[in-house]
Design goal:
InterPro entries: ITPRIP-like, Mab-21_HhH/H2TH-like, MAB21L/cGLR
Mean pLDDT: 86
CATH class of the largest domain: Alpha Beta
Number of helices: 12
Order of helices and strands: HEEHEEEEEHHEEHEEEEHEHHHHHH
Distance between the termini: 36 Å
Main location: membrane
Membrane topology: Single-pass type I membrane protein
Number of domains: 2
Radius of gyration: 23 Å
Family: Belongs to the ITPRIP family.
Protein name: IPIL1 protein
Shape: globular
Length: about 350
Amino acid sequence: VTAELMESFTRVFVDSVRNSFYPVPQEAIGVGSAFEGWSPREWDGVYRVLIPLNPPPGHAFHPELNSAGQVAARTFSVRVELVCTCKREQLGKQLLCFVHHSQEELRRKRKRSLLETLCTGSYLDVEKTSRWFRQLVRSSWLHVPQSYSWHLVFQPCTRSCQFQLSKGKKSLTVEMLFGVRQGDSDIFVVSQPTEAQKGSSSIFVSSQPPEANFIASTAWLETYAVAEAKFFHHVASQMPCESLHLKCLQVFTCILRGTGFSSSTWKTVVMHVLTTVPLSRWSRREFARRLWDIMAYLRRCLQLKRLEHFVLGNERLPAEISLPPAMQGVEPLNLFEHLAQNPAAHREAMRAYGQLRFR
């Protein structure tokens, strides 16, 4: 239902922004466990889709790194630059040029650049973009066929567009995140934390102070969700039993409660095992063996106090997953760095591993 609705919205969005200088929404990408084919026990029931935004004519987007801290939790600002369109035409008409046409002419034609509408200073503002995007969805709703059979109610959210669809006794919640692609890669900066970023906490990691959770309105969070979804699609196309790895994930996420391991940790472990055990060995009769392979991989990671990020620095990443030039050849990021620095957390993690093995 969500995928079909997004297709309908995309067609209407293109017509809605055709003659404007607002961002241009692209085809939606389903992200998170619901679209990858597995859902953890603690799944919040929200179907998340990422809407890539392209700059309108006469504008360019430039993601700029804000935080030089942990690579897996970086934030960016999206700088908006005006570019010359004097030599470009659209539908046989010469485009207005925000660089060279006079302010008087722009005012007479009632044209405002993106810098004047959705930006704070020179940077694309998430909250302003969210309000505009919500209004775009609201005005588009009556023009999609689903409006005849479903009822839509918006949910409060300042950094995305979230709504509930209902039809009789059926209901589902959809969250439309919007983001900017980094170059031609599968890495995006997005308006709202994705499912993995929301659910990556663990009792083995020290809690952050409340002020660390504050996100500026011009801050966009880097996400690897699209690259990971693309990896799962790649695996499914080559595996003899295309859902076996998903069954493994579901088994473990059902028994994680109380152990301190997050579902995102298990997802990372399973993805690594999928690149080390040949996909031809993932048949139904080897289900139990693959479960023990996953447990053995986690045990080695705990002993070494090292679990490498699946996308960053992974030489086994399939070639069809594209990374920005700045990410190519980087050193692998250790997601278990905190265990190496905190002996008490490491002892607790080993105890939790024993509990999980018993289960």
